[in-house]
Design a protein that fits this description.
158 residues, mainly alpha, Four Helix Bundle (Hemerythrin (Met), subunit A), 6 helices, 59% helix
């Protein structure tokens, strides 16, 4: 079962995803001019990618027996207004590194997926499915935002 989850995680990131464009293809297609734009006060694209990264790191920490790891509010959705090419490329590199770390963590995982995670009310399986769903949700949100921001400049704020 863990191999199926690794495969699914890889497809969402850089494979042939069942729902459309994967993360890498989606993020590489975004024009730099749209990265910091907001739809009527929403989070911007850079903030959403950072949010994805934070929760990927959370899942990796928890799967490595660091059940006390917490995501701080200021890490979850920080306000990011520096959306230049260098910062964007650095964020994409961190996301790529998180992909490698999570795949390594999943591949080396040697406990039961159904074991509950101490101090949490979910299992290892729940966590792994949830992080995959979380990535799919937010890349869909980012794809929608990119399309809308590119076509409806009057909706842009921030």
């Amino acid at each position: 079962m863990i191999n199926e989850l690794v495969d699914q995680y890889q497809k969402v990131y850089q494979g042939k995803a069942w729902y459309g464009k994967n993360i890498v293809d989606s993020l590489s297609a975004i024009p730099n001019a749209l990265l910091c734009n907001r739809l009527n006060g929403s989070y911007n694209i850079v903030e959403l990618v950072h949010h994805m990264l934070v929760w990927r790191r959370y899942a990796t920490h928890v799967l490595k027996h660091n059940e006390d790891y917490q995501v701080k509010d200021e890490e979850n959705f920080p306000v990011i207004d520096q959306c230049d090419e260098t910062n964007w490329q650095n964020l994409l590199e961190k996301l790529r590194q998180s992909q490698e770390e999570m795949v390594r963590t999943m591949t080396n995982f040697n406990r039961s997926l159904d074991d509950p995670i101490p101090q949490k009310n979910f299992s290892n399986r729940d966590l792994l499915h949830s992080i995959i769903h979380h990535d799919i949700y937010h890349i869909g949100q980012i794809n929608f935002m990119t399309k809308y921001l590119d076509r409806a400049p009057e909706a842009v704020s921030g």
